[in-house]
Amino acid sequence: MRLSTRSLLPATALAATSALLTGCFAGAESATGDQGDGERVRLAMMQPPRSGLSPLTDDAFKLSRWSTAETLVKLDADGNAVPALATKWRQSGRTWTFEIRDGVTFHDGTKLDAQAVVRSLTRAAGAAPKPRILDGVEVTTKAVDADTVTVTTAAEDPLVPQRLSSPQLSILAAKAYRGKSVNPLDAGTGPFELTKVNGTSSASLDRYDGYWGGKAKAPGIDVRFVPDGTARAAALRSGEADIVEAVPVSQAALLDEDLITEVPMPRTNTLYLNTGKGAFKDASLRAAAREAIDAKSIVEGVYEGRADVAQGLLGPALPWAAELRTPVQRAKAGKADGETVTIGTFTDRAELPEVAATLQQQLQKAGFKVKLDIREYANIEADMLAGAFDAFILSRATVLDSGDPAAYLYSDFASDGSFNIPQLADTKVDAAVTKAGETRTGETRRKAIIAAEAAVLGTDAAVPMLHERVIQGDAAGVVGAAHDPRERELVTADTYVK
């Protein structure tokens, strides 16, 4: 086991955090009374539901990770669309036609058909706010016959199948839509049926024996929401949980290495430099900041080696990026000469304030005078987007909901991008990110995405430092838990506890 540079957790703290979980999973049994097919999977999750598990919000990813709600399309490891509730599809201009899988029933026993798909996708398209994956996209869904639907967009969109893979576009039974909010209880099509939700504390799922893809190996799942990372790690050590998501870096070294898995995430820790005003309006000073950053020391010191030094904006979770990337031409570095800059970041991700402190030292060594402004994300986002800082440190998901980086590159670096922290206005970047978004999926699109990445990196508006890993804990008896860099899968039909 690796030794941690941090102090070990006192025994009293271990006892206290373990006590938080003691009894949480005790006495859990399937509502169906099914026994004899192994143990129920006890799952400790990081974030409690924010919107009553509505699939139109980020809570959709919980439904996906529990294998209770499903979409028309899934993504393979390379981000390509593959069949799920739809078996095949074809494009004709602005319209895509999808064939619906036969023999699928919802957990309430009703049948999946074209009208059910239209109902779910129409509700999502008309939601306020819309699911992120439909931001700026007009979608109309119609039933052609009982087994066929068409999805039409206002402009031709090569990414429609990938968009439909988003957990926020899950297909649910009619009963889910009877109220103002969407209720996923007993309404999905997955191998596990959501049977009970206790607010923000717990949830229960039972195996759905009528699942179209075959009977799940575990009789059910018992979920507890444990926001405290120390308590989640303690639950794995004490045997109170079988699977623990998002083990903090500070706790990983205290666990048996055989129980943890590090998965490269499509998430990059990046220093955004304000190109619109202040010191970093000068390209040579942006270059000086880039050259001053020692990402390796941040990975080793702050992340204890549990991250990957960035070579670009897109990391090892997208292996094709490294294969296509070529050297980027950048401006020559100037001299800081005591220029004062303010770096902002937030406390919600525990490592970011430490990253900020390390960067402060590195930039000061290069001749900058550096001030830090660190707050909770909710209290700093508006200033960040308004360009109030000379630089901002952000841990940013680079594939968003479609599994495709083009939308991220546009939102973060196009002149009219909705998340343009560096206030970048560069015609070459605009052209490159627009082309990437319009190119058909496959190798040609990937090359266009890498060209767009190169255009961004050439401006030094963003300095990618490291790619994060998600650390997942699986008890010794767990078999078949998913280790998904997109965090869409966790417990699947093949997961069980010996």
UniProtKB/TrEMBL annotation:
<protein>
    <submittedName>
        <fullName>Putative ABC transporter substrate-binding protein</fullName>
    </submittedName>
</protein>
<dbReference type="GO" id="GO:0043190">
    <property type="term" value="C:ATP-binding cassette (ABC) transporter complex"/>
</dbReference>
<dbReference type="Pfam" id="PF00496">
    <property type="entry name" value="SBP_bac_5"/>
</dbReference>
<dbReference type="GO" id="GO:0042597">
    <property type="term" value="C:periplasmic space"/>
</dbReference>
<dbReference type="GO" id="GO:1904680">
    <property type="term" value="F:peptide transmembrane transporter activity"/>
</dbReference>
<dbReference type="InterPro" id="IPR000914">
    <property type="entry name" value="SBP_5_dom"/>
</dbReference>
<dbReference type="InterPro" id="IPR039424">
    <property type="entry name" value="SBP_5"/>
</dbReference>
<dbReference type="InterPro" id="IPR030678">
    <property type="entry name" value="Peptide/Ni-bd"/>
</dbReference>
<dbReference type="GO" id="GO:0015833">
    <property type="term" value="P:peptide transport"/>
</dbReference>
